[in-house]
Amino acid sequence: PSFDICFLGVGPDGHIASLFPDRPEILITDRVAVAVRDSPKPPPERISLTRPVINGSRRVWLVLAGADKAAALGLALAGASYASVPAAGAKGRKRTIFFVDEAAASQVPPELIDQEY
Question: Measured in whole angstroms, how far is the alpha carbon of residue 52 from the centre of its chain?
Fold first, then answer.
């Protein structure tokens, strides 16, 4: 599948969809969706799109709110490993935008913030 926009929340640990850090599901590239069992946060049983499907979207929009998301944002912007910080590996084909509040952006250098948004 191909989406025009994939809109994702980002967890404090940098997870997107139900792709959690350092778990085998983040590395699956040959399926559209994957079962997630024994999830690190409730509910324990989930289904998630895989990273290739997310990255097949024209645009990926990620939203982060709250001070507990500041570290995840910093790591994603710094280009951390997507296996350890799944949000760092979410990339739209045309554009990727992080929508953040002031608390989440508190540790981001001003030059990395686009004032148009």
Answer: 13
Residue with token string 């350092």: 22
Buried b (16+ CB within 10 A) or exposed e, 49-84: bbbebbbbbeebbbebeeeebbebbbbbbeebebbe
Query: Under a CB-based contact definition with an 8 Å cutoff, are residues 49 and 57 in contact?
Result: no
In SS3 terms, the chain reads as CCCCEEEEEECCCCCECCECCCCHHHHCCCCCEEEECCCCCCCCCEEEECHHHHHCCCEEEEEECCHHHHHHHHHHHCCCCCCCCHHHHCCCCCEEEEEECCCCCCCCCHHHCCCCC
- Range name among 73-77, 100-104, 106-110 with the lowest pLDDT average: 106-110
Q: What is the pLDDT of residues 15-46, one digit of tens each?
A: 999 999 999 999 999 999 999 999 999 999 99
**Mean pLDDT, range 73-86, rounded to an integer:** 93
pLDDT of residue 43: 96
